[in-house]
């Protein structure tokens, strides 16, 4: 029941933020103007000031407004359709993305265990060698983590699955909330643990172990979720960890 209440509040601040964005687009609040005080906005929409504050933070994250302590909230730009499409990625929380990945990529790994060619396995092995070398060299520019997951999707020989995984990673790469969390991951040295997870996944694919590949991918993404949960600010309005449970591990028979 508590979870339903939290979900409703999150939806409210998104809706209020979207409505304020529309009003800015319509010229009701020109660039450089100040939005009404939080108290007035809260009365207009019949919600608490906390929800209004979260809506304004959402607009600030996308660059539409600037919240100036002690002065007010000022309009920085008029968001166009292209900006809105780009910012749609920003409104997807890190844990919402992880839940989608756990559901999709665990099944993809299981399918790849059946469909992967010898060349696919070799490409994955080479990628993990490069990932290991990059970690040893403190190289944060090369994203072999992403490449590894995309190669697994490609190993299903299904272009639609590959494009689906690619889209999720594009959302991740474009999401400032995710990037903020991921910056802490590198500093805390979790990359080695995730490399070990990748090696376990590859071992299952090489054995053509369908349930083993599913389990290894599921556990890897569970480890990622636990890590991000530990370093997240649970009081931040963009934190969505309490809304998205881990995908239940598959208990049926994978053949």
TrEMBL record:
Q: Which UniProt keywords apply?
A: DNA-binding, Transcription, Transcription regulation
Any keyword Transcription?
yes
> Which PROSITE patterns does the record associate with it?
HTH_GNTR
Q: Could you confirm whether the keyword DNA-binding appears in this record? A: yes
Q: Pfam families annotated for this entry?
A: FCD (PF07729), GntR (PF00392)
Residue span(s) of domain HTH gntR-type: 10-78
CDD domains per the UniProt record, alphabetical: WHTH_GntR
InterPro entries this protein is in?
GntR_C (IPR011711), TF_FadR/GntR_C (IPR008920), Tscrpt_reg_HTH_GntR (IPR000524), WH-like_DNA-bd_sf (IPR036388), WH_DNA-bd_sf (IPR036390)
Q: Which PANTHER family match?
A: TRANSCRIPTIONAL REGULATOR, GNTR FAMILY (PTHR43537), UXU OPERON TRANSCRIPTIONAL REGULATOR (PTHR43537:SF5)
Protein name from the UniProt record: FCD domain-containing protein
Organism (species): Symbiopectobacterium purcellii
């Amino acid at each position: 029941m508590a979870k339903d209440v939290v979900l409703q509040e999150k939806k409210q601040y998104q809706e209020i933020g979207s409505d304020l964005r529309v009003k800015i687009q319509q010229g009701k609040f020109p660039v450089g103007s100040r939005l009404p005080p939080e108290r007035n906005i809260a009365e207009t929409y019949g919600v608490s000031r906390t929800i209004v504050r979260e809506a304004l933070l959402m607009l600030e994250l996308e660059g539409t407004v600037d919240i100036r302590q002690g002065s007010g909230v000022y309009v920085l730009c008029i968001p166009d359709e292209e900006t809105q499409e780009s910012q749609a990625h920003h409104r997807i929380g890190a844990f919402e993305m992880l839940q989608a990945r756990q559901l999709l990529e665990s099944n993809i790994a299981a399918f790849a265990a059946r469909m992967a060619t010898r060349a696919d396995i070799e490409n994955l092995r080479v990628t993990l060698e490069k990932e290991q070398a990059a970690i040893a060299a403190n190289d944060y520019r090369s994203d072999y983590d992403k490449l590894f997951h995309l190669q697994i999707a490609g190993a299903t020989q299904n272009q639609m699955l590959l494009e689906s995984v690619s889209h999720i990673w594009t959302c991740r790469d474009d999401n400032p909330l995710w990037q903020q969390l991921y910056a802490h991951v590198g500093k805390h040295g979790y990359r080695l643990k995730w490399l070990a997870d990748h090696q376990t996944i590859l071992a299952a694919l090489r054995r053509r172990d369908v349930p083993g590949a599913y389990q290894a991918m599921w556990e890897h993404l569970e480890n990622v979720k636990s890590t991000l949960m530990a370093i997240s600010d649970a009081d931040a309005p963009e934190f969505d960890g309490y809304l998205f449970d881990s995908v239940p591990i598959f208990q049926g028979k994978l053949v």
